[in-house]
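Structure (tokenized):
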């Protein structure tokens, strides 16, 4: 079976929390790795997501990272919370002027 891996970077402006990790993570850039496999037998290529992982700082050492499996919907929700918190901060700053 044919497989592919894609990578992207997501940047959080504030500390955030993801279900499945069980701890708060600091603001910063995080690499997201998605593994997909080809569904055989179709007349056109279709891939099915097998796993989505995120590289996060390890608890044991500041310089180490660990790869944890996450749910894409949880990641999307965290990205949305981070963006909406930024909009709320911008609105607050405008109101103080």
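Design, position by position:
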């Amino acid at each position: 079976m044919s497989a592919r891996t894609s990578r992207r970077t997501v940047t959080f402006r504030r500390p955030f929390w993801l279900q499945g990790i069980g701890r708060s993570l600091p603001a910063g850039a995080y690499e997201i790795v998605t593994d997909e496999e080809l569904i055989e037998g179709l007349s056109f290529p279709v891939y099915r997501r097998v796993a989505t992982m995120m590289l996060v700082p390890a608890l044991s050492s500041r310089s180490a990272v660990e790869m944890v499996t996450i749910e894409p919907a949880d990641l999307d929700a965290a990205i949305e919370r981070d963006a909406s918190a930024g909009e709320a901060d911008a609105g607050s700053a405008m109101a103080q002027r």
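Reviewer-requested clarification: The helical segments are 72-96. Confidence is low (pLDDT under 50) at residues 90-97.
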